[in-house]
């Protein structure tokens, strides 16, 4: 199951999986692209193993920083049914 996390101003969608039994979480980033249809990247946390399909070096630097800064939230929300399932108490 993939949960929505964030939509950026350029319509980039960021989603994440539930936590798998090995403790990993898949973070998936997808951006519409006029020439290619979509470009996407996947990060596997907590290992920070990346797969890139179409983003430039500079775009990936931004995406990696964004994921790094939100890694704790991805890990937390992956165990709580996504951001909408998180307890705000």
Mind sketching the topology for me?
Layout: E1 2-7, E2 13-17, E3 25-33, E4 37-45, E5 49-53, H1 57-77
Antiparallel strand pairs: 1-2, 2-3, 3-4, 4-5
Sum up the structure in keywords:
89 residues, alpha+beta, five-stranded antiparallel sheet, 1 helix
Description:
The protein has 89 residues and is α+β, with helices and mostly antiparallel strands. It has one domain. It has one helix at 57-77; strands at residues 2-7, 13-17, 25-33, 37-45, 49-53. A 5-stranded antiparallel beta sheet has the order 1-2-3-4-5, covered by helices on one side. Strand 2 (13-17) and strand 3 (25-33) form a beta hairpin. It is globular and about 40 Å long. The protein starts with a strand and ends in a 12-residue tail after the last helix. The mean pLDDT is 93.
Distance between the termini: 25 Å
Strand content: 35-45%
Low-confidence stretches: none
Global morphology: globular
Task: Give the integer mean of the pLDDT values.
Answer: 93
Given helix and strand content, the structural type is: alpha+beta
Q: From the alpha-carbon coordinates, what is the Rg to the nearest angstrom?
A: 13 Å
Q: Number of folding domains?
A: 1
Largest sheet: 5 strands, antiparallel
Reading the helices and strands in chain order gives EEEEEH
Using DSSP, what is the number of strands?
5
| Fraction of helical residues | 10-25%
* Count of alpha/pi helices: 1
For the largest sheet, list the strands in their spatial order. Answer: 1-2-3-4-5
């Amino acid at each position: 199951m993939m949960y929505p996390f964030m939509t950026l101003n350029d319509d980039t969608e960021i989603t994440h999986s539930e936590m798998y039994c090995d403790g990993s979480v898949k973070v998936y980033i997808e951006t519409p692209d006029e020439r290619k249809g979509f470009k996407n990247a996947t990060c596997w946390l907590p290992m920070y193993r990346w797969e890139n399909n179409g983003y430039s070096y500079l775009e990936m630097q931004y995406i990696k920083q964004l994921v790094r800064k939100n890694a704790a939230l991805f890990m937390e929300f992956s165990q709580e049914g996504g951001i909408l399932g998180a307890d705000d108490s």
